[in-house]
């Protein structure tokens, strides 16, 4: 059965620093789709973050590239298997050079926190009670 994937493309200032950051979060780099200008970060079987130097990223668009440290071009949200895993990933991100973004959101059935990676991209990590999701 075909499973649709998402490839999130992001411009980064320092590719080596970004690779280090994401591997410290526990993700792997797919060397087959990486080179000196791009890193393919495997988040799951269906989610891949393609980190590009600004020069490489510019090859894919005619638009001005957002300064993700000053502006928000996208909010990336990843699900998590538990509240504890939400906290664990955000704490890893801060230890690896990221920063907490916004306030913890705790609505009982849903719990979320967010961090900014070293380039300022905001990643939201969210847990939702499976019994509520299933309806």
Q: Key features?
A:
single chain, 135 residues, alpha+beta, 4-stranded mixed sheet, 4 helices, 9 strands, 24% helix, 33% strand
Number of helices: 4
Give the class from helix and strand content and strand pairing: alpha+beta
N to C succession of SSEs: EHEEEHEHEEEEH
Largest sheet at a glance? Answer: 5 strands, mixed
The share of residues in helices is 10-25%
- What Rg, in angstroms, do the CA atoms define? 15 Å
On the 0-100 scale, what is the average pLDDT? 96
Beta-strand proportion: 25-35%
- For the secondary structure, the number of strands is 9
In quaternary terms, these chains amount to single chain
Layout of helices and strands:
Blueprint: E1 6-12, H1 15-24, E2 28-29, E3 38-42, E4 47-53, H2 54-58, E5 75-79, H3 83-95, E6 99-100, E7 105-106, E8 110-116, E9 122-128, H4 130-133
Parallel strand pairs: 1-4, 5-9
Antiparallel strand pairs: 2-3, 3-4, 6-8, 7-8, 8-9
Brief account:
This protein is of the alpha+beta class and 135 residues long.
Characterise this structure.
- The protein is 24% helix and 33% strand.
- It is globular.
- The strands form 2 sheets. Strands 5, 6, 7, 8 and 9 form a 5-stranded mixed beta sheet that branches. Strands 1-4-3-2 form a 4-stranded mixed beta sheet.
- With 135 residues, it is α+β, with helices and mostly antiparallel strands.
- The two termini are 25 Å apart.
- The protein has 4 helices and 9 strands; from the N terminus they run βαβββαβαββββα.
């Amino acid at each position: 059965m075909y499973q649709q994937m998402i490839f999130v493309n992001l411009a980064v200032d320092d590719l080596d620093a970004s690779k280090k950051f994401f591997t410290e979060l526990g993700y792997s780099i797919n060397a087959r789709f990486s080179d000196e200008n791009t890193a393919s970060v495997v988040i799951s079987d269906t989610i891949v973050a393609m980190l590009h130097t600004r020069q490489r990223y510019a090859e894919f668009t005619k638009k001005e590239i957002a300064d993700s440290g000053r502006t928000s071009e996208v909010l990336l949200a990843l699900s998590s298997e538990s509240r504890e895993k939400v906290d664990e990933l955000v704490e890893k991100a801060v230890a690896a050079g990221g920063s907490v973004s916004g306030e913890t959101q705790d609505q009982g059935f849903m719990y979320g926190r967010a961090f900014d990676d070293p380039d300022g991209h905001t990643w939201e990590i969210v847990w939702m009670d499976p019994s509520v999701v299933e309806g």
